[in-house]
Amino acid sequence: MPAKSPAKPDLLLGIDQGTSGNTVLVIDRDLAVIAHATVGFTQHYPQPGWVEHAPDEIWASLRAALRLALDGIDPTRLAALGITNQRETTFVWDSDSGESLGNAIVWQDRRTSDWCEQHKALEADTRARTGLPIDPYFSASKLAWLQRAMVR
């Protein structure tokens, strides 16, 4: 009996790494949904105006959603992968160990409002260089906050 030929890649996998969970969608080339799974994770509010996610919880949620959505699907059928993420959520990790150095600061977090106000004089130059205003929504102020927090 001849060996079964491998499946032809005919499925698309989409990952939406969102603010409250991970959604995985598998569709065929006609855009029919073959599989779908969503697994949530916890929003952490350590102080008023602060919103955080635990990177390990995001990762566990994604792995669980992938397992659920891909259950029974031959992975050789996957032709492409698309990923969306949750905007300006920011975290850092140790490049040697791969471990996160703390929780992610979520895009809605406002802890860097004072830092942004202190740097408003640079806004015209920042907009000219990046097209973005100085605002707690964006990652630069979050990275500055994380850097200061780690040096302490």
**Number of DSSP E strands:** 6
Oligomeric assembly:
single chain
Radius of gyration: 20 Å
CATH superfamily of the domain at 9-87: ATPase, nucleotide binding domain
Helix content: 25-40%
Note the main sheet: 4 strands, mixed
Provide the structure class. Answer: alpha+beta
CATH architecture of the domain at 9-87: 2-Layer Sandwich
Task: Quote the beta fraction.
Answer: 15-25%
Strand order of the largest sheet: 3-2-1-5
Key traits:
single chain; 152 residues; alpha+beta; Nucleotidyltransferase, domain 5; four-stranded mixed beta sheet; two-stranded antiparallel sheet; 4 helices; 22% strand; elongated
Please give a structural write-up:
Helix content is 28%, strand content 22%. It has 152 residues and is of the alpha+beta class. It has a domain at 9-87: Nucleotidyltransferase, domain 5 (2-Layer Sandwich), CATH 3.30.420. Strands 3-2-1-5 form a 4-stranded mixed beta sheet, with helices on one face. The protein has a two-stranded antiparallel sheet with strand order 4-6. The longest helix has 16 residues, at 55-70. The N and C termini lie far apart (68 Å).
Provide the fold topology.
Elements: E1 11-17, E2 21-28, E3 33-40, E4 52-53, H1 55-70, E5 78-84, E6 104-105, H2 113-118, H3 123-130, H4 139-151
Summarize the structure.
This protein is of the alpha+beta class and 152 residues long.
